[in-house]
């Protein structure tokens, strides 16, 4: 009897702790004329300020999946068209800030629309990506570990084009995938092994549009458009000598619930792995009855089922860890990286805007935080 009571008590405590937390969405917005960090609670519809400075912009951030550590960068204008970027960390509840380092960049162009921060799941390292290069910083030692490059001289950048556009750590934190432009508008992905500093180059193509890590950290999913080539979804398993696997040709062209996939969708963006079998992607293509196809879809590779979630002009999106919510940034202009915040609830199959008048939202992240 005592064992039953003890087990029941533990279950009650575990259940209560789950009730005490809620998924919240972090995002950047400059609706108050200054780029600040907020989070939105989909349960009560409240938006709260997390980090804000009256003069300086928060230009990039990332947070560990459990919300325990927030890493962000603040921009400080200085003389002669130079900027000072201050990298800081803050532990939940984000009341105290710790300055990691301050470094200078040559002009506003280096952070224009593509400055990114990425923190690894174990909160050991952070990668800072601007157009001129990418630094890996050791958070324990508060110092730069090295610059991502495949050139012999570590002081050089990844490629001669000086256009780095973002990156992401693998789910196990052992690797980092960097997105860059090296030749004209040809996107390139380099995957770096953080233990031995080796790198794996994914073939750069002009029609690549985005990537996501596979859940086992052993490969990446790549989306593409039809820019003179076949648009679709590819997988690279990071094995030297292996080519890309085209999912749309191998498995999905004959999938069930596939009225438009093969013949009409020609552009794919913002892929995200939901689990080992299911992936999320924004697909666009030809007009049907005068209306262009702009659909957020979930693809189940095992069951070969394609499900439409909603239609909209998406420029960024992120699924919540529980799978209940999907957040998206909506903007009719595809070249914009900001827009209005849209939340879709899979439990109610209903979506709605969060302050549709605010067209400055970007950089979405879901975390589990207390009420």
In short:
With 371 residues, the protein is mainly beta.
Describe this structure in words.
- The chain has helices at residues 2-19, 247-252; strands at 21-29, 36-41, 46-51, 58-63, 69-78, 82-91, 98-105, 116-119, 125-130, 133-138, 143-147, 163-169, 175-183, 186-193, 199-205, 208-213, 220-224, 233-236, 245-246, 265-273, 278-288, 291-300, 305-311, 314-319, 325-330, 340-345, 350-354, 362-370.
- It is mostly beta strands.
- The strands form seven sheets. The chain has a four-stranded antiparallel β-sheet with strand order 3-2-1-28. A four-stranded antiparallel β-sheet has the order 4-5-6-7, with no helix packed on it. It has a four-stranded antiparallel β-sheet with strand order 8-9-10-11, with no helix packed on it.
- Strand 9 (125-130) and strand 10 form a beta hairpin.
- The two termini are 35 Å apart.
- The model is unreliable at 1-19 and 156-162 (pLDDT under 50).
Architecture blueprint of SSEs:
Blueprint: H1 2-19, E1 21-29, E2 36-41, E3 46-51, E4 58-63, E5 69-78, E6 82-91, E7 98-105, E8 116-119, E9 125-130, E10 133-138, E11 143-147, E12 163-169, E13 175-183, E14 186-193, E15 199-205, E16 208-213, E17 220-224, E18 233-236, E19 245-246, H2 247-252, E20 265-273, E21 278-288, E22 291-300, E23 305-311, E24 314-319, E25 325-330, E26 340-345, E27 350-354, E28 362-370
């Amino acid at each position: 009897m005592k064992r039953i009571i003890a087990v029941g008590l533990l279950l009650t405590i575990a259940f209560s702790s789950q009730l005490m937390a809620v998924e919240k969405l972090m995002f950047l917005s400059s609706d108050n004329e200054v780029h600040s960090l907020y989070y939105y609670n989909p349960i009560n519809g409240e938006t709260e300020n997390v980090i804000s400075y009256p003069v300086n912009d928060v230009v990039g951030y990332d947070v560990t999946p459990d919300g325990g550590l927030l890493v962000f960068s603040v921009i400080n204008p200085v003389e002669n068209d130079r900027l000072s970027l201050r990298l800081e960390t803050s532990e939940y509840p984000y009341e105290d800030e710790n300055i990691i380092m301050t470094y200078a960049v040559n002009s506003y162009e280096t952070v224009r629309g593509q400055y990114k921060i990425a923190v690894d799941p174990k909160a050991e390292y952070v990668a800072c990506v601007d157009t001129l290069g990418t630094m890996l910083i050791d958070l324990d030692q508060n110092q730069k570990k090295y610059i991502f490059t495949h050139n012999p001289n570590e002081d050089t950048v990844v490629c001669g084009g000086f256009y780095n556009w973002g990156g992401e750590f693998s789910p196990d934190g052992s690797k980092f995938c960097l997105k860059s432009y090296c030749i004209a508008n040809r996107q390139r992905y380099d995957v770096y092994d953080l233990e031995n500093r080796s790198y794996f180059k994914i073939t750069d193509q002009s029609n690549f549009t985005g990537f996501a890590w596979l859940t086992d950290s052993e490969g990446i999913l790549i989306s593409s458009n039809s820019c003179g080539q076949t648009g679709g979804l590819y997988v690279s398993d990071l094995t030297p000598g292996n080519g890309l696997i085209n999912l749309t040709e191998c498995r999905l062209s004959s999938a069930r619930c596939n009225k438009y996939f093969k013949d009409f969708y020609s552009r794919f963006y913002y892929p995200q792995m939901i689990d080992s079998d299911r992936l999320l992607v924004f697909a666009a293509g030809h007009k049907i009855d005068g209306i262009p196809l702009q659909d957020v879809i979930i693809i189940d590779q095992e069951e070969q089922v394609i499900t439409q979630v909603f239609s909209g002009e998406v420029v960024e999106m992120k699924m919540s860890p529980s799978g209940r919510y999907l957040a998206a940034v909506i903007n009719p202009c595809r070249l914009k990286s900001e827009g209005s915040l849209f939340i879709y609830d899979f439990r109610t199959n209903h979506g709605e805007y969060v302050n549709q008048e605010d067209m400055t939202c970007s950089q979405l992240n879901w975390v589990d935080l207390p009420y």
